[in-house]
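Table S7 (text form). Paired inputs.
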Amino acid sequence: MDETNHSRVTEFVLLGLSSSQELQPILFVIFLLLYTGILLGNFLIILTVISDAHLHTPMYFLLANLSFTDVCVASLATPKMIVDFLVEHKSISFKACLAQIFFLHLTGGGEMVLLVSMAYDRYVAICKPLHYMTIMSRRVCVILVLLQWCVGFIHTVSQLAFTVNLPFCGPNQVDSFFCDLPRVTKLACTDTHVISLLVVVNSGFLSLGSFLLLVISYTVILMTVRKRSSASMAKARSTLTAHITVVTLFFGPCIFIYVWPFSSYSIDKVLAVFYTIFTPILNPVIYTLRNKEMKAAMSKLKNRYLKPGLVSAPMRNVVFLEAK
């Protein structure tokens, strides 16, 4: 085989968010606090759902899986970015770069499917309430989560198939804080216009397809609850507002980066920060602040573990009932 078919690049240099040395310590503190918030917030949701029997329902099962996926998405790029704020040479090995691309698209593609599953759960709960537990059985919930990871795996393998055999023999600077697939492919020592188009089509199809399914689902739900009482409409709107907010925050940057043809590197960096860091930290806030059951369960969890000597068991039950 010709030598040009082999990758001579052993590492990529990440240019990061900013080249200003004065900003590096400030950015280090900011993103360290944000990442800590992501871990604490999402693990708190997972712990709350596991520990409270009242939350052992399909809705909260999917919500706990969303929190786990958010932790994975944030942990694939954020720790490396935080460490790079403290070093001058921000590099990542070739194999680590490909691994980062693989797992980012695995979790990102899977989260899109999970959000569609959560919309389907809300559709069944609101439009077919009498058949909810029959349709959304434990078996169905497990299948939906397995489908999430299967679709994510197929998506990421198809993406890497375009990239793994490309010859990288010269430029190795990636203008981002992680190995972003479109920018890595542009560094190859060959014409990558067709490959870049395939990458965009692949990601765009999954992003736009999932987003359209979500729009259709929420439209059908809102049309259904319009025919019911004002109380049902208010409750449905409260639930759907949280879901629609999360969907917009997640899909907006993804669609803009992979589908919109006129985006610039500076804008892409901001949007990449948004869906890898801000969305995972906003999800716990959105779902807990607007959800009475989650707030009550967290209050019960706090009283159980943080104040064991001050609050007796009967009093904890009273607090929980009043919160509901």
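Next pair, protein 2 of 2.
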Amino acid sequence: MTLRRPLPIRLLRLFTLLAVGWLALSWLAVLALRFVPPWTSAVMLERRAGALLHGEKDFRLRYHWVAWDQVSPYVPLAMVAGEDQKFPFHHGFDFDSIQDAVDAADEGKRLRGASTISQQTAKNLFLWNGRSFVRKGLEAYFTVLIELSWPKRRILEVYMNIAEMGDGIYGVGAASEAFFHAPPSRLGAAQAARLAAVLPSPRRYHADHPSPYVQGRANWILQQMGQLGGPAYLQGWQPPREVRHR
């Protein structure tokens, strides 16, 4: 007669198997998305569910994938200039910006974000909106997987395709058509800067009818794009120098 293992040992074994299985599946998903365009994202699913729950009958989610070589080089340049100028240098986390945000919070100043493009890609693709230690821990986990599995260009390609740029408008493909009535390959530097300028709050700001704040931020992003070296900055990811954040 075979003796059954004690319940705590069986539970520990089950938990270990589940944890290992989840780790393997999550890494396989990240590896697959290095080569396969995502058909949706967690944030898109969350927005769609929210629209259904709140009875937003006129809501329409707009998203379609556009490959890197079909997008104006000004678009990824503007996103790096406006969102994460250390993107080519860090490995997913900007510890200097994190420390600055902590210091500002300790001094009672307005809480500001310190997320990198890699972190935002991880959050938008796999997680939900909100603030909690669980979500931030998962965000860090997926950020590490993405940085280990994808080249920088792929991270930026996915980010510019899934970032929310308007209410229900996700990615540069849908945004360029909705706001500028043009394919993303034809966007100029000023239009790209306006898209990047609304990223902190895409449901509040509008790229097609920019407020004075958005236009001022877009002008600053344009200046940073020039100081980074223009579209040539994207070739090789070896910029001549780092430009200071605003």
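The radius of gyration is 20 Å.
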